[in-house]
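chain below, 99 aa
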Amino acid sequence: MILTVHLLAMLRTRIVELDRKLALRHGDRYDKIKHQLDEAKKWYQTTKSEAQSSNTIPLEQKQEETTDQFAKAGSGAARQEDVIKQKLKKLLNNRIKAK
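prediction:
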């Protein structure tokens, strides 16, 4: 256990050193990337807690929404197809009667 605590302290020290070196080497770009990473972590935690509290998985929810949208688009296309078939049928019947 003491070895683990010691290793953890060493890792934290190395992380701080690495962070300092990256900040010196890359300046503002590194700060911007760190900020974006922090924002991504916050978004992830928020999304995760919302999903856990609502008992839904965001991916499944998005898949259901997409499936519904495709179903609506498909039924709309089928209705349009029926309208076009009706118009063609009338045109053909009118042509046949005209002869």
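The two ends are 99 Å apart (CA to CA). The chain has a mean pLDDT of 89.
thats it, cya
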